[in-house]
Structures are given as C-alpha cells and as structure tokens.
Records
---
Amino acid sequence: MLKLTEETIETIVNSIVDLILSNQGKYQKNSEGGGQSGKIDNELFWESYIKRVDPHEKRYIEIVNKDLNKLSGEVFTKIEVYPDDTDKWKFDKKKWIGEFAEIEATFLVKLYKQEGQKAIDEALKLARKKKSIKAEIPISIAFDLFNPLVKEELLKQTTRFPAGLINTTEEIIRGTIATGIEAGESIDKLADRVMERLGDEANRNRAEMIARSETIYGSNAGAEMGYMQSGVVEGKQWLTSIDERSCIECELMNNRTASLGESFNIRDIDLNFDYTDGEMPVPPLHCNCRCTIIPLIIKV
Ligand SMILES: [Zn+2]
C-alpha cells in the first residue's frame, strides 16, 4: 500500500500550485473605490466583506461536495467488490490528495486576488485620508500574485487542506468499522454504517463546514497579504462578525491587534480544539466563525 509521506504531499501540491500560478494571465489593474471618511465603519466593513466572499463559499460547497461524493463512490465500489474484507475498504490517497489540492489552489488564487486587491484599495484610501501621513500615497497598486509570500501562503493552505481531509476520511472509515466490530455487528451492518458516514447528507455537511473555513481563512490571508503589499499598513485588528457577537470567544477577540505576519494572541481563549497549534494569524477562530481583519494604517 502507498504510504503518503509529507514529502509526497509537498511534491504533489508544489507542482499543482506552480501549474495554477503559471496559468494566471497578466493581472489587470483595478481602479480605486470612492469613500468619504478616513475612519472604518466596522459594521459596513464586515457586511461588505461577507457580501464579497459569500458567493465564493457557495460555489466552493458545490465543488467540494461533488469531489467528496466521488471519493465516497470509490469506497462504495470497494465495499461491493470485497464485501467481506474491511481491510480493502479504502481509497487511492495519492490521487485524492492531488484532486483536492487542485480545487483548493484554484479556489484560493481567485480569493487571494479579489481580497488582496480589495485590501490594497481600502488601505490606500484610508491612508490618503490621514493628514499625518506626509509621504505621497499612490492612487493604486495592483496586487502581486507572484510575490513569494503569496506562493508560500498558497502552498501552506493547499497542503494542509487535502492532508486534513484525507486523514479525516480515513479516520471515518477506520473508526466506523472499529465501532461496529466492538458492537458485534454483522459485516452487512458495518458496510451500511460506513456508507452512511460517507453518504450524501454527511458529505454535504462536511462540504459546508470545509467551504466556510477555507473561505474565511483564505480571504483573510489574502487581505493580510494585500495590506503588506500596500506599504501603508502596520498591523491588523480583529473584527468579530455581527452575527457572532454572542460567541464569547470571538467577542473576546474583537478589536485585538497584531503586527502583519504575526499571530493574534489566543493564549487566554478557551478553544474546544486548537487546530492551529496556538497560532492564529487570521480568523476563523473556530468552525463557522465569520470574523475578519481590518487594517491599522501606519503613523508617520
Ligand atoms: Zn468569529
């Protein structure tokens, strides 16, 4: 059986990311937006953020769902061919790592471009309103998708995503079989259990959860890179979503600040599970979190 090492995953993801980046045409310059004041209206900022990223999330749910169903189909075929041998109820990990890495990288490139550019436009607009800034602020800067930091971030997220998804799927199959065996269930019952856990409804729920997290993380990471490229932002401030103000953890995060490229302090936040190893560069803080970040303009 093929054992997937970290290097194998990295090699697959690297070549996919290179291919997707090389397919990006010359980036079109965006024109700057309007705006009256040098201060951010937090509610408006968040509403417009959600309005922009929601369509990405909705489309990604469908794409992830379709691939999860295809992956389940592969497992179901194995169950049909080897109904008595649970060891053979598996899927081609290498193929699926590649498949999910490709959809993730394609999705992220679009999100980074959109939110990175929006972040630059917003930052330049705010900086120009600040009278204390003596230096001349450019009217517009095009987001550079080929900046090394962008590729680094793209590789990080694209590697983490399929590895997590594949491991979870394996764990669902292994765990479901183990639970059934422990309960003394027949092999038919075991097959039913696995097929339910990898069925349409379960996949839909998973796709929704995944698309939400990837959209919030990807869009905020894209914004942070845009702030870096703008040259007028020195830090980021956590903005808790309006529909989540009752979430104690996110409420505690609201208005916290951090330097660009650094993690927010989450040491005092009680998370059910910490999937970030204590690092929280950008939201989401947890599943279904829809928080974002706003720029802290440099003081001159
Ligand atoms: Zn949140």
---
Amino acid sequence: MAARRTTKKSNVSADELLDHYRDMLLIRRFEEKAGQLYGMGLIGGFCHLYIGQEAVVVGLEAAADEGDKRVTSYRDHGHMLACGMDPKGVMAELTGREGGYSKGKGGSMHMFSKEKHFYGGHGIVGAQVPIGAGLAFSDKYKGDDRVTFTYFGDGAANQGQVAETYNMAQLWELPVIFVIENNQYAMGTSVKRATKSPDFWERGAAYGIKGESVDGMDVLAVKEAGEKAVAHCRAGKGPYILEVMTYRYRGHSMSDPAKYRTREEVQKMREERDPIENIRSLLLTGKHATEEQLKEIDKEIKDVVNASADFARESPEPGLDELWTDIYADEIPQEVN
Ligand SMILES: Cc1ncc(C[n+]2csc(CCOP(=O)(O)OP(=O)(O)O)c2C)c(N)n1
Ligand SMILES: [Mg+2]
C-alpha cells in the first residue's frame, strides 16, 4: 500500500483532507440547492441554512465514533448529512414529500434517525440542551461507552435551561459535549448586544465544567478539539464545553431582511475565512490534489445533490390518512373511567 501523504502543517493525511473537503462541500451544495427550491416555492415554512458553518459539524463528526449521539436546533441539515443520513430523505422532507425522513410531515426542523443516532431537529431555542443531557444520562445509566454531541447557538447559550443542564450534567458526570456554535448572531441580535460575558465556554467554570474555544472555520482545529472533548467524556470525567467560533453567510432563515450587518462583513468572512476554501488551498499547495481532481469531486457532489432534488420532486405528497399516524397514541381510548 502506498504511504499516506501528510500535510506540512500537521500530521493529517491527504485522504483525510479530501474527506473533510467532500463532506463540507456536500453540505454547502445541498444548502444552496435547498435555497433554490425554497425560492421556487417547493419548500414551505421555515428553512434555516447552515452555509458558512460546515467545518463545525464535519470536524466534530470526524472526532465521533459509531454509536455516538447528536442533537441540535432547527439549523440542522448539515448535522444530518454529516452523520450519514441520506440527502434524498432530507431533501424530500424539506419539500414535504412522502419519501422524507418524517414522511413529509415534519419539514426542515423535524427529522430524526434512530439508525444514525440523530435526535433532531428542535424548533424551540435551547430545548435540545436538556434532551442532550438526557441522552447522555441514558448511556451512562445503561453503561454504554457513548458520547452525546449537543449543539446549540450563541443565542440559546443565554437561556436558563442551559445553566440548569450544566449543573445536572456535571453533578451526574454525564458524557455530553455541549457544542456552542457561536455564529455571532441570534436572528438579528449580535452577541455584543445580547450578553456582557461573550466567552460562552467560560460559563462552565461556575459548575467546574472544562471547556475551550476553537476556531470553527478550521475543520482540523475543530476535529482536534473534538477528540480532546470525546476523550474527556469517554474517560468518565463528565461533560465538556466546546465553543466553536463560526459564521453564517446566509440570513437567519429564508425570510431575513439582514439589516443587522453589512454586506462587507459577510464578504470579508467569505473571502478570508471560508472553511472549504481553506482546505482546498491546503490540498493544492501541499500538492495532495490537482485542480482536476477537485473538479471531479465537485461534480460528484453536484450529482448527489441533484439526485436528492429529483427524488424530492418525484416523491408524492403524503396521503391524508397520514394525518392519523405517528401521533402520540396508536389507539385513542373511547371512554375514560
Ligand atoms: C424559546 C424560543 N424563543 C424564541 C424563538 C425564536 N427564535 C428562533 S431562532 C432564534 C435565535 C437563536 O439564535 P442562536 O441560538 O444563536 O442560533 P442560530 O440561529 O444562530 O443558529 C430565536 C430567538 C424560539 N424559536 N424559541
Ligand atoms: Mg447564533
């Protein structure tokens, strides 16, 4: 077998860089396509795109092992793709079709996969944080050697239920990684306007929870921090906080007038910090890949994304009988004594 080439910067193999490149590009192109379908009226309701934040979830998934769990907010398409859920099922759900992960009845914010240990998709800001601790509690209770990645935003980090969850998680030494995706805005409110203590990870100190801040535009840095957090949790040392500094390029959701920041600010981030461009240039300057190879990968990804959109368009809408399935009880009692 040929020796694995490594980058000059670190001991990362070319194969690994290519994997990260592919995984981030899949999310980027998928989200761009979702934006197009939304514009065409094929996706209704809320739709929050993840463009710009790809390195967060790709880096952390690279640090995860089989059976580890994840739960996140409504900005969830990237998390689903990164943990291996089928782009066709995700796109069909976005368009409200039968072939979607929730049979077209949930939409963008409501998808689950038991197989991939993806527990949603939650529209209520911060609601997934105690759920993540609960998932970790179940692993600890059952003696499973698993870790739960609990993702939430800078806005959510200011909520009371997050503080309560930190306390319980540390008290019970739960194997949960709290991932704060600090994209600097909560809808139209910047971090500066929302909190006096903007270093969110430091808040763990009040409970004795270890943590750190990491550059979320650098997939390798995210992966490294993720591995450290995973090792901490798996060793039974309790929770860990990772504040991942990132940026979203698109509006909060598809209906965002974006008056709270300048075009120049977004442009500067795209030009100087883009996570995909960073890996692309590492691959090219380190001579780990040629322009042609990268073009070929781009084409493969486009094909996957186009196939997901075709599948979504061809899948029928769910039948009316679906109104009566997947509700809390299969049988509704007729009499209550
Ligand atoms: C409990 C609750 N309050 C308010 C809202 C409305 N809301 C939806 S997203 C959001 C901002 C959250 O920002 P952040 O946690 O930073 O996540 P991001 O959207 O940046 O990923 C708000 C206030 C909500 N969905 N739930
Ligand atoms: Mg935010």
---
Amino acid sequence: MRELAVVHQLAAKDHQVGEPGLYSRIMVIVDGNIPSQGDDESCYLTPVAAPKSGQGYYTLTRADGAERPAEISVDEAKLSQQDSEVTTLLEAYDWMTGRGFSVAAQSVQVILISNIGPCTGCKARLRIFQDDLVAAAKDAGSAVSITVESVYDTPEASLDRTRGSKIPTTYGYPDAVRTPYDISGRQGAYWVYRLPSLQ
Ligand SMILES: [Zn+2]
C-alpha cells in the first residue's frame, strides 16, 4: 500500500507537468526500496519523459534497435516511435544494467507510470523491455525476480482510438485491475496491469 501511495503521489506530480499527450516515467523498486526524486543508488526513478520525446533503442523503427514484432505494423511503429515510453524504457534499462543488477539481491519491480495507458505499440515495447531485462539479469549472473507493471489513472481501463487518421490503437490494458487508494483522505483508483512473468 505504501508503494501505491508513493506511486500515486509521484503520478499526481507528473500530472501537473501540464503538457497534453502521454508522458511517463518509471519507478524501479529494488528489494522493496522505493525511490524518491533523484535516487539512483539503490533504486531509481527516471525523469518524466514528455510527449514526443521518444528516441533510441525502443523506437521499433531502427535497424540497430529492438526488433519490431510481427503484430505491430510498420505504420503503428512509426506513429508511436516518439512516444514518451520509448525514452523511459531505455532510461530504466540503462540504470538496471549499469547499476540495478549489481545492487539488487532479491527483487526488482519496474513500474511504468503514465497519465494514459500505453498504446498498442508501447505495450509491445514494454514486453520487449521485460524480455531484455530478464536476459540482462542472466548475463549479469543475477537471480532476482523481475516484475513489470503499468499504472495509470484514466476513467476506463482501456480506450480504443484511431491514430494518425487511420491506425487503430488501444491505450491501456482491458485486463488492468482497478486498485482503489485512500491516502490522507484523498481517494481514487489506479489501473494496475502486471505483465505475465517470463521467469
Ligand atoms: Zn505509445
């Protein structure tokens, strides 16, 4: 519950960034240690990535980046390649491989926090990221358990939209679990979706 409280407080702060569109950040909880702003020693909180800031390995459009899965069309990958998650996932991956696996003894919980659930392309990116983390743990000789979750607080668990005038996409996870909170009198609910474990 305390984790959720912290996640929410940070998410609420994120919501005050004030830019339209989907922004995101990732909280990496290591062995139960919950990061605050600026923490990068024993746990990690990425900066907030703004809409259209996406670049790097997880665009799914680069020859030298993560491979685009067959179920994601070229158009969908292109339309979503600048989404904020693209940057956030790489930040979290870099911290995990540069520091996280060497400090984690038992568990790593990666929480993607965003104001809207991830689109179809970014849900694929999150699965690839999870796969990459599991592989990186093996490479690092780490036996920690890895969980990956998506947390957001839209009215509905998922929302179907058409993007770029013709590409249908679904924001959020229809199977996300509504998770109520009551923190210091502030009530609400998040959607929480935990990716199936790969371990
Ligand atoms: Zn996206």
---
Amino acid sequence: MKKINRRELLKNGGALLAACSLPISLVEVAFGKDSGQNFTFAFVSDSHITHIKGKQFVNNWDRGLIRAVAETNLMDPKPDFVFYGGDIAQLGKPEEIDHGLEILSGLSAKTHYVMGEHDYYVDLGDYWRKQLGPDHYSFDHKGVHFVVLNSILTWEKWMHQKWDTGMDRMKQMARLDNPNGQPFMVGETQRKWLKNDLGKVSKDTPVVVMSHSPLQKIFKGWNFWTDDAEQVQALLKPFKKVTVLYGHVHQIQTNQIGNISFHAAMATAWPWPYPSTYSQKESFLPKLTVEMNRADPFFERDATGWQFIDMSNGDVAVNYQLPNNQNRVVAMDKKSGKPADTMYQAADKRIPPQDNY
Ligand SMILES: [Fe+2]
Ligand SMILES: [Fe+2]
C-alpha cells in the first residue's frame, strides 16, 4: 500500500484517507488502546502581525499565520482544540490583534489563547483581554489537566511607572538586547492561583502547562527567561508527568528538568537564532539535557511553521510542521526518559558524537 507523508496528506485533504494508509501518529490517535487519553491538539504561535498603515500589514507575517490556519484545518482526525501561544501582535495595537484574530477566526477548532509580551505591554493586556477573556485559566480534557499562565509579567513598579505613552513601555520590551527591558515573571498572584488550582488535581493526572516565555531560564539577555521559573517548577514537581509548552523563542527547544518536559514552538513569523550564537552575550544557558537540531538556515522562511501535539496517555509528542524544512517530531524517548528528536536523537537512532549529551 502506498505510504503517504503528512505533507501529502495535508495537501490532498480527507479524500486520500479512504484510499491510503494513515501516518502512524494518526493511527495511534484514532485507534490507540487507551483512546480516552489519546488525542491531538494544534499549537500555533508568534505571528507578530505588524500594522503598517490603514489596512496594510506586513505580508510575510500574515502569510505564515494564514498557512498555519489552513494546514491546521486539514488535520484529519481534527485536533480537539488549538492553542495559540502568544505574540499575535508586534506592538499590541488593536489593529494588529484584530487582524490576527480575523485570520485565526478561520480555525475550525476551539482556540485557547496565551498572552505574549508583544500583546501586553502597550496597555497591560487590556485590549487582548477584552477580545479574548482571562489571561490565566485551566481546564480538563480527556484525563489531562491543562493550565494557561501569563508568564510575561514583570515588576509592578516598572509596569506602572509614569510612561509618556504605553508604546514607550512596549518598545522597552519588544526587542532583544535592550538594557531597559525587564525579566518576565509569572508573579505571586498567579503562583498562588496555580497552587490552589493544582491542589484539586490528582498527582497521577498528566499536567500540560502553556506559557509564552519558557518556564525555565535559558538566556536572560533576550528574555528567554522567566525569573520565578524555579518557584513555578516547584509547584509542578509533585506531579508524575508534566509538560510545559511555550512560544516566544521562535525555535525548537527541548529540555527535561526532573519530571518536567519542556518544548518550544516554532513561530509563524520568523525564527530567532540558535543557542550557539548566544555566546555573543554573557550566557545563562543551562546544560540542556537535549540538544536541539537546527533546520536549514538558508531559506527565507526557514524554521517557521506550526505544531500539532499527539497526547498519548499523558506523553507529549510535538510534531513540528515546517513548510520549507523537513518536519520534525520530538517525543518522549522511553529509553532515556527524556524527549528526543525522533529522527536524530532517540537512543536507538543516535550517532556516536551525540552520545555526549
Ligand atoms: Fe514572539
Ligand atoms: Fe514573545
């Protein structure tokens, strides 16, 4: 029987399904043993819709989001829901949020939203919340507890100091290497809320946390960083299986700290450079337990895309859908107990030099 890859599947839509074999991941989702806990959801992030003037927006960023929406809608079986990982807008302007939401309204599955700093700092999230509701919340789905946090807050005093305009504050946060930028944090109020929320959840329940910034400390100079990450991790420690999915870093990052697996999303807008370039600045990069693989850096749209997630009994497999690069799957490697890029890093696929990490 002809084997089809996912790209062909997406291109040709549901009609092919009747005639051809399904990709493995979808077979598992549809017919897995514990089907109550096997499902997929899509994860789209960091579109940075940028307003120029009037009805003009930066076309390249629009295209990335339009493509992600179209491909998400072609998933078959359909995803149970979609997560949008934050940074809909570039400078948080209502025009940008509205335009991004107009494109995202094409999604056929229910969408849960995460606040990004580019959505927040112009008006401290007022317009975003008006359109989308609370910025932190939780829900249960097929035996998994999902938590959404607003991880891009910072010191109250800094946020509320007298700024000439909200845009001045936004511009302090909306770039890399800005000495006036402030570290992101979840903050005490949400940490208390999280503690209370998790208090009602059995320790055997798989927990998936969605945040915009990584709930780990990677690189402070670019705010690939959450200042109270350890305190949040401590609240998640008692659970058997925890996954944190985040946006913001616009690249594949995978890490395992204790019981917590961390996975980043590709952006639909542009990729940020990769860890080897972090040495330009003082590095806070912890020893990553899983090294990431760089896709091809020579495509204009290199390393942009979207993700879908296979949930299988609480284990997360992130399927990176990269229009101009080979798709990747980062999944829990049972042998090593850490997530691994299944094509390159899984214990049984490793080539000798990679055995060092
Ligand atoms: Fe972003
Ligand atoms: Fe961001």
